[in-house]
Design brief:
Blueprint: E1 6-9, H1 16-23, H2 29-32, H3 40-48, E2 57-62, E3 67-75, E4 90-95, H4 104-119, E5 124-130, H5 134-142, E6 146-153, E7 162-169
Antiparallel strand pairs: 1-2, 2-3, 3-4, 5-7, 6-7
The protein binds coenzyme A.
Coenzyme A (COA) binds next to helix 2, strand 4, helix 4 and helix 5.
């Protein structure tokens, strides 16, 4: 999947250095509920486990540099209390901080949504973002997601980090 400036492709072991560079940033993972990566070895392990399913998890690669600068994916709903319908997948994404606010995540999410519409019979997708991370909500809204009006708390994150829930009917 590609646009003029990005490609979505499966993760490769050789992306470990780039993944560590961006995912070790304390401003990235914690906003999505995961801790910053601590070593290139950990990043490689993530590529081989969390990112291994090439049917629903992609690296966001900048064509200009060939570097993986973020992640985009969907999958079974997490254990984070989102009020998902039965079998409704959750989407997730992040982009390295140097590339924020350039429309890259929105572009990547649109690519994935086109792919899901073309290749699956998924009827709806759910996601959520921490209330204090409005940029993520904007990305979803720009792609057609609508707030459900619900707010939930992820038990692993603590009661002071409510999550605003959004859904896209496909
Ligand atoms: C959220 C994230 C993926 C956005 O990526 P991105 O490539 O910068 O997103 P885009 O440029 O496509 O869109 C960002 C939108 O948020 C808006 N935005 C940025 N900061 C904002 C703020 N503090 N308040 C409100 N809107 C904000 C931007 O203006 C833009 O909207 P616009 O096009 O209407 O102007 C990126 O910031 C990130 O990776 N954050 C850390 C991880 C994370 O939060 N992942 C999602 C977990 S739910």
């Amino acid at each position: 999947m590609q646009t003029e400036r990005i490609i979505l492709r499966p993760w490769l072991d050789s992306d470990a250095g780039a993944l560590f560079k961006y995912a070790s940033d304390p401003e990235v993972g914690p906003r999505a509920g995961w801790p910053p990566h601590k070593s290139v070895e950990e990043s490689l392990e993530i590529i081989r486990t969390v990112f291994k399913d090439a049917t629903n998890t992609w690296a966001i690669v900048l064509k200009e540099t060939g570097e993986a600068i973020g992640a985009m994916g969907y999958g079974p709903s997490c254990q984070c209390n989102l009020p998902a319908r039965e079998g409704e997948p959750l989407i997730g994404y992040w982009v390295g901080r140097p590339y924020w606010n350039q429309g890259i995540c929105t572009e990547a999410l649109r690519l994935m949504l086109d792919h899901i519409r073309r290749t699956t019979d998924i009827k709806s997708l759910i996601s959520g973002h921490f209330i204090d991370n409005p940029a993520s909500g904007r990305v979803m809204e720009k792609c057609g997601f609508v707030p459900t009006g619900e707010t939930v708390v992820d038990p692993e994150q603590g009661k002071d980090t409510p999550i605003r829930v959004l859904r896209l009917e496909l």
